[in-house]
Protein 1
Amino acid sequence: MGLKTKAEYIESLREMNPVVYMFGEKITNVVDNPRIRAGIESTASTYEVAELDEFRDLVITHSPLIDEPVNRFCLPPESIEDLVARVKLNRKLGSWVGTCHQRCTGLDCLSTLSIVTYDVDQKHGTSYNKNFVNFLKYMQKNDLTANAGVTDVKGDRSLGPKAQADEDMYVRVVEKRDDGIVVRGAKVHQTGSLSSHEIIVLPTRAMKPEDKDYAVAFAIPSDAPGLIHVVGRSSLDTRELDGCDTGNMRYSKYCPTLIFNDVFVPWDRVFLCGESEFAVDMVIKFSSFHRQSHGGCKAGKIDCMVGTALTLMDYNGTSKAGHHKQKVIDMIHRAETLYGCCLASSYEGNEQPSGTYFIDTVLANASKIHEGKEMAEATRLMIDVCGGFVADLPSDKDFENPEIGGMLKKYLKAKEGIPVENRIKMFRLAEKLAMESADTISDIHGGGSPEAHRVTIFRESDTKSKIKRAKRLAGIED
Ligand SMILES: Cc1cc2nc3c(=O)[nH]c(=O)nc-3n(C[C@H](O)[C@H](O)[C@H](O)COP(=O)(O)OP(=O)(O)OC[C@H]3O[C@@H](n4cnc5c(N)ncnc54)[C@H](O)[C@@H]3O)c2cc1C
């Protein structure tokens, strides 16, 4: 009980027994599998930094609910300061791991449930908020990590859940029992599901009354009976299995497909069941929180790219090249505008009826659209500055080969005084930053497709007041 150290976090995962498949094989030792472990290490950093002076004040906060110190990733925001701290922490962690630390999604789910379960209870007289608060206490007291089970497989995108040819295309309730519900379906792109103690499931879209069996939210342990994790491919993933050429020496990201093969959920872990009109609130709240989280950590990732570009400029002898400096400036301003937009969405946040704070949705979604385009531009600029070896550097095994290693090191040396090994390491990091598909593609689709961001911006913007302003200037009276 209480805050966990990194070692305690890893041990707590060791005590779990999830059903996992990867690359065609069943994996029994998840924690020591090098591919999955590199992802677990990313999440472990959220525990590790809690003990570092540089991070402690940002990570450790106080929970009025349990009246104890908690990790910020277990605290739904209770003030504007909390909203701001989320962004600052995500930026610092993004630049610490250079990939996705994976723990923000669970907080985004907790924050959403903290708001919406209260609203559902007000309308329907249900007791979802009580269930949620008890679950939150459990998360906080044990310093647990949760992932976000939001994205359904969705089948034919032109049809709603109930209209699908196969009725399991969205996670649904297949049985209601006295002691709980049984759910079936699949959630995809499940960032860090095996780094998580808990899987929190929310609806992925607005639902109609006929979709009520699909309007379901709940939490289950990541090793619940019937739950199957299938770890997806990511470019560069065999590097971790090979034990070399990983680029990022410690951290990585993986996203399993999660199959719910008739999983039992006790009633006290159910947070929505049939109140279909609230599915849309859950989606908007979650995706907006998550888009705000992205702006922080992706700004941190650009910080790593800037550091990589500047170091290779030094190693290559181009530090004084004017166009390289300009390109680094262009990378920095992209990180800062992304960060600034997320900070603004926090400062413009407001208190919800439950007492939890919510960000400004339009600003959070604007930052995500910005991220989708500008991360790609920052990556392009980094590759331009670093050079072609971001693409095709020989393996460390070739550098160690007694027959060719010496020749390779001779020809890959650049500026005098810089060990060739350092130049090789930096190129490898640039490759990882640019080409880790499990991370780079989340810049575009993470937290919803770019069109979803646009739709949310239009729906949530006060367009009426903009029309009024324009008509006033033109001298038109309604
Ligand atoms: C690296 C990564 C990590 C992720 N992590 C998580 C996670 O931890 N948890 C989680 O729940 N999800 C996660 N996601 C999922 C992410 O939210 C989805 O990928 C995103 O919502 C898009 O859904 P999709 O992949 O099914 O694509 P689709 O929804 O099929 O979208 C593909 C394209 O079709 C368009 N489209 C889809 N439906 C329609 C329609 N009806 N009309 C018009 N156009 C349409 C979209 O706008 C888009 O352009 C992650 C995704 C990635 C790539």
Protein 2
Amino acid sequence: MTTTELTSSLISTLPGHYYTDAELFQLEQQRVFEEMWFCAVRAADLDRPGAFRTVSVGRESVVVSRNRAGEVRAFLNVCRHRGARLCTEEQGQVRRSFKCPYHAWTYDLDGGLVAAPNLASMPDVDRAAQGLIRVHVREWLGYVWVCLADEPPSFTETVEDVVAQRLGTAESITNYGVDGLALGRRISYDVRANWKLVIENFMECYHCGTIHPELTEVLPEFADGYAAQYYVGHGAEFGSEVEGFTVDGSAGFERLDGVTEDQDRRYYAITVPPQVFINLVPDHVIVHRMFPIAVDRTLIECDWLYTPGIIESGADISRSVELFDRVNRQDFDACERCQPAMASRAYRAGGVLVPVEHHIGEFHTWLADRLADTVQ
Ligand code: FES
Ligand SMILES: [Fe+2]
């Protein structure tokens, strides 16, 4: 299924069942989220050896942790003995090993099987072969990205280049020093909508004039409906009276060290398929990670990142957090308003995209290709 040309102004969206069909969602989990690089956890959240987080990646639970040398490791959260879930908490800290709560098979921080009741009486057991199943990991922008595929796609091509292509150059993102920033605030949203509605919403700004009064005050050009993602290298400019990217346009903080004159007083938004949104403003960076957990439910973790000095000083970040928190709630409300209608007969053949939304059609084609290419 690809998008169909209706007129030069209107092209069709995906049909409604793409947002409601549980089997199709399973296929997406398998062919998209379990095959691509997935931004799983913030590296700084794993602050010492044995600190761990468990995250849903596609249909799997994954444990992300640090070994004794401080290197990030990720494993499928499945005991090799009889399959019990190894870590049941969302986050925690072990001393030197993960011990299964069922029969006490115990794995070191590199996943190797190191102990089990009666293991000594089973000398033929190959402890290496019975270790936890490792998952590929990469660290970038201060986040741990994991890939469940046996042969992961190129991280450079599928992640770094996507950011560079949107911003025009590879250095543009480097200027923000994202991996050196500190977490100022994290807000989790439980959105009752299909993950694609969330992406599509993020990709367009046709709705900005209607639902984002605070954002369009700060970024007046958004009132025209052109998303910042529409043009390569374009960042939406702050209004002339606006002092900072805050809920009331009041002053924010000093601009980040590497941010250039060209990037100052501008907002850049980047979608890294399939589940990351990056928002760059001169004094902070906002990163959204999406976790699709059901065909009609998506968890979103949003991090507001500032220089460590700002966070350590206890500076008031509430006005800058509030701007995008409001934007998020306005966006997610809109997605939730659309979700029930996806099952309506009115949407059987889908809806339409206006010209300022046509780039969403490329996302649909991308998705359809991924699903089609990989179906056996
Ligand atoms: S299932 Fe984990 S030790 Fe038995
Ligand atoms: Fe929006």
Protein 3
Amino acid sequence: MMTDQGSSFVATRNACKMCTPLGACLAFSGVEGCLPFLHGSQGCSTYIRRYLISHFREPMDIASSNFDEQSAIFGGQNNLSIGLRHVLESYRPKAVGIATTCLSETIGDDVSMFLNEFRSEQAGNADVSIPPLIHASTPSYHGSHFDGYTEAVAAIVDTLAEGGKRQADLVNILPGIVSPADLRHLREIVSDFGLTPVLTPDYSERLDGPPWQQYQRIPDGGTPIDMIRRCGTAAASIQLGDTPTGRTAAGILADKFDVPAMVLPMPIGVRASDQWFAALEKVSGRPTPKQHADERGRLVDSYIDAHKYIFGKRAIVFGDEDFVVSTVGFLAEIGIQTVLCGSGGQSGTLKESIDRIEMGPSEPPRVIEGVDFEDLTEAADDVHADLMIGHSKGYKLARHLGIPLVRIGLPVHDRFGASRMLHVGYRGTQQLFDRIVNTLLEQRQDISEMGYTYL
Ligand code: SF4
């Protein structure tokens, strides 16, 4: 079946994605003591810092090799060496995560070779100890922030993981781009099965931590490097999100160390969460703990209670592909029909993944890959949707259509508490479900001439 690729307009207008190294910087922030470093122009790191700070509301240092006109013409090796020396001396990082920008990729800088030469040059320098230098190739004209994140997680594991004796209680969790609250919840669930999670990356503390007495250049938190080294000995890898393309951390661990890989959809909704819990039952050999089974029961009960408020509503869903797929599946199980969905990502698998969802009596939605908000606006005008579900960049479209926007994913920079938004598992689905139901009730109340007080 042909995939709907949006209009034939040659430029992106109001992108439904963010830049590729942004995702890499987020992933590098989830490794303990790791400093994200952009090889390219300073403006790129400023843009990425601003975007991530407005979502997480925490400070974020991203170093830059600070290209100028000369480096743009003659190459950025000298800038990279100077920048790395500077950050190693002043930040003393446990690792440096180096992501390339559009400019360094366009001029063809061979960063792997530059890093090898840097290591050789500094080998005799007693003042500088060289931590792992993790390189992710992230040209932003090819892919989205999600691809940059996936590539950076793959690079982290490829650089650091080691093999060894299989550890039956160790499980690699590769969570996709989720909130700090989601990361904490995933860790809690895995621990409740008696397993030790290696959650890579884990930015839950670094990007949602308590206030400091003194500024920390590299905040506490992140997956310990010693734990990532043990990834090759784990009983299994569970990758959440089944839309990544290119190399993945789960694939690398399977190829290099024979760690079995389980690739699941993002656990949003009862069915997708059931798959996540079933995977943990299989790895641990234990049944789902009672507290989680009880949460599932309460969630199903709330589906029944709220059915009359939401059944037959029509939704537009957009954002990262893994979120879109699971959200569409979740809406189908609660009786909301997705009429249009789109993502700025271009994995080529979005439509196929949506087509696999059990839609019940509903028509499948129109699916547009590689979409921008101009394309989405043109498509949305005819679908008579009741609500939109996606990140904050969809606000203008929601306003244009006069329908509410339920914010999920990243970025959420026009509401407070993005770090505490829970999406995953039975508990996260419950919170999302309540938000959707209440949003529709609020809208009904607002447009009613009667001013209902009892719904
Ligand atoms: S130039 Fe490329 S890497 Fe830099 S901010 Fe823009 S899209 Fe991102």
Protein 4
Amino acid sequence: MSTPVIELSGVSRRYEDGPAALDEVSLTVHPGESVAILGPSGSGKSTMLNLIAGLDRPSTGTVTVDGVRVDTLGEAGSARFRRAKIGMVFQFFNLLDDLTVADNVVLPAEMAGMARGAARRRAAGLLDALGIERHAKAYPGRLSGGERQRVAVARALMNRPALLLADEPTGALDSASGADVKALFNELHADGQTIVTVTHDLTLARSCATRTVKIADGRITADHRTAVAG
Ligand SMILES: Nc1ncnc2c1ncn2[C@@H]1O[C@H](COP(=O)(O)OP(=O)(O)O)[C@@H](O)[C@H]1O
Ligand SMILES: [Mg+2]
């Protein structure tokens, strides 16, 4: 079997005082899987994504992503790892409002040292593929929520990540824009992209994920394989 993209082994995360935000979680995700993480607010979903992305460290347990022990990386190593391996999409887009759409998308490649011309060409190709090339020179503030999320997805894909992580990607969108983002995630999955999406949106889980993991009070309570509808 191929190397897992994600391997969480006995992962707990405790903050001072409170109960464990994550409690002995083990989870293996293989290349090409599209996993939806479902659970009520406060159940530990974002904590789990942050640990996978190396933005946070577990209290106990190990986090391995694409063969790299993320939990033992220092700050610089973890930033480098994220640039090379992870694309992230957030509920509120997290675009830089004083950069154009094209400059937002190009930024991760520039930070990774890709040659400028090659980076521009790849960004233009992604914007074209995502249907937002006409906005390349616009500033994000001029775009609709759905368009901004497409820009965020283009940026996330810029460095050809082994793993696309999304935290409530449709949470701030109207239902039509949300449907566009779901269709986009379906296409990415069909192209072989490994995706982990945290969501409250059951239709997103049903329509885009090949696997649904439920989490409550920091523990995995269900883990089902599902058929992708679209
Ligand atoms: N920085 C923090 N300090 C203290 N407690 C936190 C912190 N971040 C999250 N928590 C707690 O950990 C639990 C899980 O939070 P989170 O992972 O954000 O949940 P979800 O994303 O499922 O809504 C919650 O009880 C939350 O209050
Ligand atoms: Mg959250």
